[in-house]
Amino acid sequence: MMKPRHLERLSIWLCAAALALAAPAVSAQQAAPEEEPDTLILSDTLNYNDVTKESTFTGNVIMTRGLMTLHADTLVMREDAEGFQHGVATVSSPDKRVNVRQENPERFEVIEAEGLRGEYNGKTDEIEMIGQAIVTKYVCGKALDTIRGERVKYNQTTSVYQAFGGPQSSAQGGRVRSLATPSAKTDAAIEACKRKSTNG
Q1: Quick one: CA torsion of 15, 98, 103, 126, rounded to 10 degrees?
Q2: Nearest-CA neighbor of 125 among 77, 84, 83?
Q3: Helical residues (DSSP H) of 156-182, grouped into ranges
Q4: pLDDT tens digits, residue range 53-75?
Q5: Which SS3 state, helix, strand or coil, does residue 82 take?
Q6: Alpha helices in the chain (DSSP H)
């Protein structure tokens, strides 16, 4: 198993950690380097434990991996026995939110997610927002789909969403609230962006 890059580049930033909406970190035999984007993490402090393979970033944490950006107060990264990365992002106050932004330029799409806590599972390629969770899909700058709940989970490989209600739901009555735009409107927004980018 190839040693993760973040064991080699401990400084202000740490590359090859992976709370990400992108491919998991695996061995060189399983994935070519170009398939695994570098991860840049900025924070006020970093505490790394070589025994547990766990890194803890605190203070105005900003993580960028490919076209994904995460903002949190604390980010804990660890690697499992198979080499997959797992991360937990949290905030220091109930008035604040973990924020994740994922861009998909090919479809003029941006997914924005927020919650009191964010968890990433590199093995299943899922990100889950927990507590006051909201996930919104924008196409060409327009908010088209929004899911609210106590927990909202998104699989970036399959594009499957799961949402769960509860006392910490961002929707009224502890329920799940989903607002979906017809695919015809989504397709029209994409076409409008294509024309705009071609003419612009």
Answers
A1: 80
A2: 84
A3: none
A4: 899 999 999 998 888 899 999 99
A5: coil
A6: 183-199
